[in-house]
Specification:
Length: 251
């Protein structure tokens, strides 16, 4: 398994090489949370980071392969041929790792727009989008739970983006997309259950802080005015699938 220290150094090399060639790249996923969150090293929250996940603007995608190949990464030719307009993959053969690059937006169970705000952070997407790329996961697994708890333990939800989880960004997206709202709400409940039920053993003060921040996000989601499209979709509820099926990619 590739250690986080190596991946952080590799991430910085990729971003610097991209900037030199006019390609903006920013990290998302567990490694990005690790960069922002000292609590990712907490004994109850630590985990391994096998790969690097990135996003680049759609206009920069044509130059992406040149950046990655120049750094020694090997393109996943079959995957990139089939999916290259929205996602590309590259192998780190010597270390057994992989770089997964989303093009323009993050599209998995739900679509999270990313490209327009990539300039706000030097290495990662902003914290609100970082939160949403985890909170949109329908089948949340233990490492995703730990990632989200580390993010909430170290960063308060509020106004703005400077080391803050921007509630305005989260509520604006969820207020016009009932499906995203529903998945995020379900995952907030799962995080709460993980703490209250003891699945994740945080100290009492840390647990109370995270629970308060979960409640703050939930309250903001509920209070935000909803669009007509949101209200119409809400009438159908969960009788219809509210998320996209995510095809598992062989790594």
């Amino acid at each position: 398994m590739v250690v986080a220290e190596y991946l952080e150094a590799a991430l910085r090399r990729i971003i610097a090489a991209g900037e030199a060639q006019g390609v903006t790249l920013r990290a998302l996923g567990g490694l990005a949370i690790h960069l922002h969150c000292p609590s990712a090293n907490h004994r109850a929250l630590e985990r391994c980071y096998p790969d690097i996940d990135l996003v680049t603007p759609r206009a920069h995608a044509a130059r992406l392969e040149g950046v990655m190949v120049g750094l020694g990464y090997v393109p996943n030719r079959v995957f990139n041929t089939l999916n290259g307009d929205r996602r590309q993959m590259f192998f780190d053969v010597p270390h057994g790792g992989q770089v997964d690059v989303f093009i323009g937006d993050f599209e998995m169970a739900h679509r999270i727009p990313l490209a327009r705000r990539l300039h706000l952070e030097p290495l990662t997407v902003p914290l609100a989008e970082l939160f949403l790329t985890k909170a949109q996961i329908v089948a949340l697994n233990p490492k995703d739970v730990r990632d989200m708890l580390a993010l909430l333990l170290d960063h308060a939800p509020g106004e703005g983006d400077t080391e803050t989880i921007n509630l305005g960004v989260i509520t604006a997206l969820c207020a016009r997309d009932w499906g995203l709202y529903t998945t995020v709400s379900l995952n907030l409940a799962r995080l709460e259950h993980a703490i209250v039920g003891g699945a994740v053993a945080l100290e009492a003060e840390a647990a109370a802080l995270v629970l308060a921040r979960i409640h703050a996000i939930r309250a903001a989601l509920e209070a935000a005015p909803k669009t007509l499209a949101w209200k119409l979709r809400a009438r159908l509820g969960k009788r219809l699938r509210w998320y996209q099926e995510v095809e598992e990619v062989q790594r």
